[in-house]
Specification:
Length: 339
């Protein structure tokens, strides 16, 4: 295995932002990390880039435990490059930006020239070599950042939401660049995204992160819904109700259709006889109850089958029954736009 994570956590103060029990990555594959904002995607990428140390647990690279001293990290970082979601370019030309990392690594000038020309070809920016970076669009900046990374010929390329905040044309170009790096150069690609459609288009393996943990709930609670825009808040219509969702890349269009994933662990449940139900909650009937890995899986018919997960402690504090009338409340951060 290229990477192996064993009981890796990352905490900041009292807050745990990453908690991975077990995870591995094979070489020469493409992996997609999907999840909403705050899911832990960037934190995990920083661990894989050897830019941050776990609070507990162990990270292995090529079957050797990572040692967090300066010389060991310097050696490891030569295998891996991380392209940030909002990459920063130096002032000056595109060529100068791509050349910088090669100079730091003391690559001879002739070889630097070869690599820069090749990297520019790979991101279809050969004509931009001597252009000043201050005149570039957001999508062009991301392509230069990818060229800068690819010129280093890394074994692993990590990309934090590479298609965020760019138009659809540049999204497709960037995905093609990543595909080429893997299929031709056999570079291992690990990228994060909000969108399952991009993962399915490109990745060999897809991992869903929610609240810092890997989730197995990716293929459930996926619905095609119509978007309704109200002032500054985005909502979609679900079972004759409006639920909120986020759209960081502006892909949703008013009155358009979107596919969303509703996290079963971010749905609240209340019996109809418990008193006044909030207006935004949706009434339904429990049709199934089952134990699953220390949790209770509850299926509620609200006109569509909606699955939610509840801890056993929560369930036994207020037991529910099949055919019981209930209402469900869906957290806005639990609704993830897929495409």
């Amino acid at each position: 295995m290229l990477y192996e994570l064993d009981k890796v956590t990352r905490t900041f103060g009292s807050r745990t932002v990453l908690e991975i029990d077990s995870l591995s990555f094979e070489a020469r594959k493409i992996y997609a990390l999907i999840g909403p904002n705050g899911a832990g995607k960037t934190t995990l990428l920083n661990q894989l880039a050897f830019l941050d140390q776990p609070s507990s647990g162990q990270l292995q690279f090529k079957s050797s435990a990572v040692v967090y001293d300066h010389s060991s990290l310097t050696r490891l970082r030569r295998h891996v490059v991380l392209v940030d979601q909002s990459p920063i370019l130096f002032s000056g030309s595109v060529w100068r930006n791509i050349e910088f990392g090669l100079k730091v690594r003391k690559i001879p000038k002739k070889e630097r020239t070869r690599r820069i020309l090749h990297a520019l070809e790979r991101v279809t920016m050969a004509d931009f070599a001597h252009r000043d970076v201050h005149g570039l669009s957001g999508g062009e900046v991301k392509r230069v950042a990818l060229a800068r990374a690819l010129a280093l010929e890394p074994e692993v390329l990590l990309c934090d939401e590479p298609t965020a905040n760019v138009d659809r044309e540049h999204q497709e170009i960037i995905l093609k660049i990543l595909f080429h790096a893997n299929s031709v150069r056999h570079t291992t690609i690990i990228f994060s995204t909000h969108y399952l459609s991009q993962s399915r288009q490109l990745a060999h393996h897809t991992m869903l992160l929610q609240n810092g943990r890997l989730s197995k709930n990716l293929e459930e609670n996926i619905f095609q819904l119509r978007v309704v825009r109200r002032s500054e808040e985005l909502k979609c219509r679900f079972a004759d109700h409006l639920i909120s969702f986020s759209d960081p890349d502006g892909m949703a269009r008013e009155n358009g259709l979107v596919r969303v994933h509703i996290n079963p662990e971010q749905i609240h449940l209340r019996a109809l006889d418990e008193g006044e139900i909030p207006e935004a909650w949706i009434a339904g009937t429990i049709v199934s109850l089952a134990k699953e890995n220390g949790k209770i899986r509850i299926v509620v018919d609200i006109g569509q089958k909606l699955q939610l997960l509840m801890s056993e402690k929560q369930f036994f504090n207020r037991p529910y029954q099949v055919l019981q009338g209930v209402a469900v409340g869906i957290e806005a951060q639990g609704v993830m736009l897929l495409s």
